[in-house]
């Protein structure tokens, strides 16, 4: 399957130099990034801790591109308003974060933000059908969440293709994002399967030429 839909690249800040976050955000925008992907980890839902809304707020003034906040925290509901206030444009969360995904997505929309649902590698696609009228983005995790630099799980390509069919059938304007182990090589497979937003941490921030890395992912 080939695609003519625009491909957006969302570098994951998790792989940036944390001592120079403001500069890194400005540099990645200048290099052609479409969105900034911000991974929020609580050491409970996932076995790692990253940063919270105060860091998101501090970074907001360093770039104009949309801030795509990927919540890996449980519970997420008590923090949705804080991330919205901090400058998130899109807030995504995992069904497993509980307790009520449908209500959480309604809350994100009520805060005036775009909403996303995230599927772990072992999470079936069926949950998306139940909330398809409440999401602007579906994120397929191609690694288990918690860390950057992991290897792409190829079984997720068929999930991306299934979701592309569900999104087209719904008639809604929903982005299909893939996150984890995305490189110039696996990006091609993701795009062919139907993804249109690629998250990449190591494959961008791990290089010395961010613009070339982003162009390489776009294909
Ligand atoms: O959400 C996550 C990990 O939980 C991702 O956003 C990673 O940060 C992607 O990093 P790479 O696999 O591209 O290095
Ligand atoms: Co992420």
TrEMBL record:
A divalent metal cation binds at residues 37, 39, 70, 179. It catalyses: D-ribulose 5-phosphate = D-xylulose 5-phosphate. Binds 1 divalent metal cation per subunit. GO terms for cellular component: cytoplasm. Substrate binds at residues 12, 70, 146-149, 179-181, 201-202. Its cofactor is Mn(2+); Zn(2+); Fe(2+); Co(2+). Keywords: Carbohydrate metabolism, Cobalt, Isomerase, Manganese, Metal-binding, Zinc. Signal peptide: none annotated. Its EC number is 5.1.3.1. SUPFAM superfamilies: Ribulose-phoshate binding barrel (SSF51366). Pfam families: Ribul_P_3_epim (PF00834). It comes from the Bacteria. One of its GO terms (biological process) is pentose-phosphate shunt. The active site is at 39 (proton acceptor), 179 (proton donor). Pathway: Carbohydrate degradation. InterPro entries: Aldolase_TIM, Ribul_P_3_epim, Ribul_P_3_epim-like, RibuloseP-bd_barrel. Gene3D superfamilies: Aldolase class I (3.20.20.70). One of its GO terms (molecular function) is metal ion binding. Catalyzes the reversible epimerization of D-ribulose 5-phosphate to D-xylulose 5-phosphate. Belongs to the ribulose-phosphate 3-epimerase family. This is Ribulose-phosphate 3-epimerase. It comes from Falsiroseomonas stagni DSM 19981.
């Amino acid at each position: 399957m080939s695609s003519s839909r625009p491909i957006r690249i969302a570098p994951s800040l998790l792989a940036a130099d944390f001592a120079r976050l403001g500069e890194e955000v400005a540099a990645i925008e200048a290099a052609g990034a479409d969105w900034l992907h911000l991974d929020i980890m609580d050491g409970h839902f996932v076995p790692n801790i990253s940063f919270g809304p105060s860091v998101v707020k501090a970074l907001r003034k360093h770039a104009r591109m949309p801030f795509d906040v990927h919540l890996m925290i449980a519970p997420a509901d008590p923090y949705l308003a804080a991330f919205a206030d901090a400058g998130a444009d899109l807030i995504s969360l995992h069904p497993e974060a509980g307790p009520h995904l449908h209500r959480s997505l309604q809350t994100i929309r009520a805060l005036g933000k775009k909403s996303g649902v995230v599927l772990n590698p072992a999470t079936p696609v069926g949950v998306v059908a139940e909330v398809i009228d409440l999401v602007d983005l579906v994120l397929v995790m191609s690694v288990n969440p918690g860390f950057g630099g992991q290897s792409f799980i190829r079984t997720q390509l068929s999930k991306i293709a299934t979701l592309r069919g569900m999104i087209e059938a719904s008639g809604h304007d929903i982005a299909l994002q893939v996150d984890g182990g995305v490189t110039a090589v696996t990006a091609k497979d993701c795009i062919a399967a139907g993804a249109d937003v690629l998250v990449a941490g190591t494959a961008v921030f791990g290089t010395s030429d961010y613009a070339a890395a982003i162009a390489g992912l776009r294909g």
